[in-house]
C-alpha cells in the first residue's frame, strides 16, 4: 500500500492516549539518543493483540536498556484501552503496560501512518489497522517498517534484533548480514576502503574468498 515508508518524515499528529494528550513530533524528539517504536493493532479485546501488547510489556526493560521508547495504537477509544490493559496484564503474568496506547476510533491516524489493513474490516464495515510497526529516529524519519496481516502476531525477538542492528549501523560503518544476532560478525560497508578499514577496525577483519575475486564481503567483530 502506498504511503509512509522508510526515509519518510513522520506526520505531526495530536494523539489521545492512555497517558493523556501527546504531540507525536514532541514525543519522538524527546528521545533524542535513540528510537521510538510505534506499533498498531486491529482492535481491543482481540486475542493476538492481547498477546502482542503483553509481550511488548514483557520486553519493555530490554527496549529501555537500548534507550527505545514505545507507543501503541489501537482503533478504539482511551477508556476501552484502559479496560483492556487489565486483561493484557493479567494474561501476561502481571507485566505492567507502562507505555502509552493511542486511540483512533475514527481511523484517522492509521491512514496517516500507513497502518491500514486493505482487506480486514470491523463489524461496522470500517477499515482496521494492520499489525504495522515503525521504528522512528529522533529526526522523525522512519528507519524501518514491518507490516503484518491481522492473522500473524509479531516476533518481539526480531523487533529487538533489528533495533540492535540499526544502532550498530548508526555507530559504525557496518551492516548486519542474514540471520545476524548480537555478538555475531558484521560486514564492513562497501563505501569503506581496505585502507580505511584497517584504521576503523583495528581488531582486524576477514575477507571472504569468492569466485569473482572481488573483496567486497569483509567481516569483522565489534564490541557489544
Automatic annotation (TrEMBL):
Keyword Repeat attached: no
Top enzyme category: oxidoreductase
Domain Thioredoxin: 4-168
Database matches in InterPro entries: AhpC/TSA, Peroxiredoxin_AhpC-typ, Peroxiredoxin_C, PRX_1cys, Thioredoxin-like_sf, Thioredoxin_domain
Entry-linked Pfam families: 1-cysPrx_C (PF10417), AhpC-TSA (PF00578)
Enzyme active site: 49 (cysteine sulfenic acid (-soh) intermediate)
GO molecular function term, any single one: thioredoxin-dependent peroxiredoxin activity
PROSITE patterns: THIOREDOXIN_2
Catalysis performed (reactions): a hydroperoxide + [thioredoxin]-dithiol = an alcohol + [thioredoxin]-disulfide + H2O
Gene Ontology, cellular component aspect: cytosol; mitochondrion
Similarity comment text for this entry: Belongs to the peroxiredoxin family. Prx6 subfamily.
Role summary: Thiol-specific peroxidase that catalyzes the reduction of hydrogen peroxide and organic hydroperoxides to water and alcohols, respectively. Seems to contribute to the inhibition of germination during stress.
Name the record gives this protein: Peroxiredoxin
